[in-house]
Design a protein that fits this description.
The protein is of the alpha/beta class and 277 residues long. The protein is built from twelve helices and eight strands.
């Protein structure tokens, strides 16, 4: 199974679990709420406060599998068009739709039918009309050039095997002056090649995480400027090592991961040019 199909199946399984389990996901975790029994994740913490999610379907909150809260940190203005890359159960799309108001719009892009169906149910329950969930891949965004003011994402870009393509597509669909404002898992230090090749660790937000300087360089090559990476949570070394060991990776590989520093981070960048309107 390739990386994309492994990610698709993991998220499809997560959506099925949310719909068939009364309590939804057991906890909010990056790529990990639907983790197989006994396999811990390096990213697990509450992300949304009660006031922010008041009035949203509780299942939309339970279905979140992010590593941050981009809607709390991104600059969103009334009338903005927002695109969430890898929107999952839709919570960040719904929160964005509230902030941009009836003159704005929030798109959610996801490649998994099960997640799209779940997100549309959450949209109907929330009663928000300025929302549209679209099927597609973040490497091939099905929106016109220059049609979006803000791109958000929540622990999804690290799951792509072709991040250069993701950043190029994000740049393409943003308007001049448009903002890139995503939460993602970022690493400081080297990750062993054996870890990078492990499919289970890709879906667990470890193997696909970019090194901090590489993240900045790739965004710059895509054309972005004003690039910053702000850590929002650092993970203690044992968290990553334990997640690796739980998947049967050899001790040396686990030790290599422990020497790196994984973090949830908020990544900001801007497309050159004057913002419209």
């Amino acid at each position: 199974m390739d990386i994309k199909e492994a990610v698709r199946e993991r998220y499809a399984d997560a959506a099925r679990r949310v719909r068939t389990t009364e309590a939804g996901c057991c906890r909010i975790a990056c790529c990990g709420s639907a983790a197989p029994e006994g396999l811990g994740e390096p990213v697990a913490l509450p992300l949304y406060d009660a006031a922010q999610v008041a009035g949203l379907p509780s299942r939309a909150v339970q279905a979140s599998m992010g590593c941050g809260n981009p809607t709390a940190l991104a600059q969103l203005n009334p009338g903005d068009v927002v695109l969430d890359l890898g929107s999952g159960g839709g919570i960040d799309v719904l929160l964005s739709a509230r902030r941009v108001g009836p003159t704005g719009k929030a798109y959610g892009l996801d490649m998994t039918d099960e997640m799209l169906e779940l997100a549309r149910e959450h949209q109907r329950a929330a009663g928000l009309e300025n929302v549209e969930f679209v099927k597609g891949e973040i490497e091939h965004i099905p929106l016109p050039d220059g049609s979006v003011d803000v791109i958000i994402s929540n622990c999804v870009i690290n799951l792509s095997a072709d991040k250069d393509r993701v950043f190029a597509e994000a740049f393409r669909v943003l308007r001049p002056g448009g903002r890139f404002a995503v939460s993602d898992v970022v690493v400081r230090g080297a990750v062993p090649p054996g870890i990078r090749r492990n499919i289970a660790l890709w879906t667990a937000c470890i193997a696909g995480a970019l090194e901090e300087s590489e993240y900045i360089a790739k965004l710059a090559r895509a054309g972005f400027e004003e690039i910053t990476i702000e850590p929002t949570r650092l993970y203690v070394p044992g968290e990553a090592r334990e997640s690796v060991a739980a998947r049967g990776i050899d001790t040396d590989g686990g030790a290599g991961v422990a020497e790196a520093t994984f973090m949830s981070a908020f990544v900001r960048a801007r497309k050159p040019g004057l913002a419209q309107g």
